[in-house]
Amino acid sequence: MLFQLDDTIGALASAAGPAGCGIIRVSGPATLASLGGFFEPTDEGRWKSARRATTHRGVLRLPAVGTPLPVCVYLWPAGRSYTGQPVAEIHAPGSPPLLEAILADLFERGVRPAVAGEFTLRAFLSGRIDLVQAEAVLGVIDAADAEHLQAALHQLAGGVSARIARLRDGLIDLLADLEAGLDFVEEDIQFVSREETCRRISAAEAELADLLAQCESRMQSTGKVRIVLAGLPNAGKSTLFNALLGRDAALVSRVAGTTRDYRSGTVVWHGLSVELIDTAGWQEQPEPQGTAAGLREPPSEGISQAAQELGQNQRQQADLVVWCSANDLEQSERQVEAELLAALYRDRRLLIVVRTKSDLTASARDVGLAVSAFSRQGLAELTAECVRMLAGPSGRSSDLIGTTAARCRESLAHSREGLSRARVAAEEATGDELLAVEIREVLDHLGRILGTVYTDDILDRIFSRFCIGK
């Protein structure tokens, strides 16, 4: 990464390609000088006297363009900008050749092309945002659905940073009390009691445990929620799968056991990005038969067993299981189904039971939500219920985006372990100097999360994922 904060940098900040408006961003000490003689404001006096964020209309005179180009320049002349430096944003017609001509002229005037993530890096280095908020900028750009966007916006607004900062401030206060007692050890002055020390450490432990649980939740996320269709063979899973996706993605047959693998497709329900997975019918597998050494099971049985194992793996990784119970189940099949459902409930997995083929056969069964892939009865209610369950307290919720969770998990784990050791030491009346050592180590790990303690390689890993202009 480049740390030359005295350079003035520029880049296209809007999306590539033609548009009604394109944005070029410039940041650095020479921002105003680089626009001098290039941008002609309508009100030159107002331009020269600007001391706060203002908007200026005018024209650009480009050597490559014969006529003046009308533009609007948003100017932050002092340090109260995104990067903490003078910043200008040129809003011009979104023609790629025009935008390239503007950039070329700026580069001729000494502006350096910005590298990926350099604007946000400057915002971090100038103290305008912390490292968690910097990652949230990328999270907003890459958000796959409304849930991920909301988490990124909350993180960008400082919701997570504030929690960690409060936790860190509380530990700094505790460390100050402990070290003050060490400074006056000969006078036998106690600035904080052991009971109060244990209470404050335990409260910090609980907060860290919650943050770490959110990290684990985000680390398991693929960017979409996983909904798995399960049920007995020939329960109508593949037909329902196709209906929910709106296309024929799975082979459908009246022959039980047609699905030998699992299939997946992506769909968006009420702003939630969903990976929908169709699995083979769930059934108990017979023990392999053989009378001679090296005898293998028939190929069809091997495929069936492999399909069952794949289906089990998908159910275990699912955020939600939709159990398909055919409307025309025989009594013997209902008993098998009840046992399988009981096993799912024991796993405490989110579960919805639907009664498939509800339009084909009259039935007195009152099991789950009645759906029909052909008439589309109940499909809207099913998707709404899936979204409701996944958005509720028992679903996946986190104030952290996935990239932050991945980076922070180790530091949070070390912090919690350090606090656990400190609590044990406090309970066992160990010397305050050992307590102070543990708390200082915890503060170091929390500092790495917020960016008060960082190394070049940490910044490289974070900002290398950004695009140019951000």
Brief rundown of the structure:
With 470 residues, the protein is α/β, with parallel strands linked by helices.
Provide a descriptive summary of the structure in words:
The chain has 470 residues and is α/β, with parallel strands linked by helices. It is 46% helix and 16% strand. Strands 3-4-5-6-2-1-7 form a seven-stranded mixed β-sheet. The protein has a six-stranded mixed β-sheet with strand order 9-10-8-11-12-13, with helices on both faces. The radius of gyration is 30 Å and the shape is flat. It starts with 8 loop residues before the first strand and ends in a 7-residue tail after the last helix. Mean pLDDT is 80; it is low at 250-260, 285-303 and 393-397.
Amount of beta strand: 15-25%
SSE order, one letter for each helix or strand? EEHEHEEEHEHHHHHEHEEHEHEEHHHH
**Major beta sheet, strand line-up:** 3-4-5-6-2-1-7
Mean pLDDT: 80
Distance between the termini: 14 Å
Number of distinct helices: 15
Main β-sheet description: 7 strands, mixed
Cα Rg? 30 Å
What is the global morphology?
flat
In terms of structural class, how would the helical and strand content be classed? alpha/beta
Low-confidence stretches: 250-260, 285-303, 393-397
Q: Count the beta strands.
A: 13
* Helix percentage: 40-55%
Q: What key attributes describe this structure?
A:
single chain, 470 residues, alpha/beta, six-stranded mixed beta sheet, 15 helices, flat
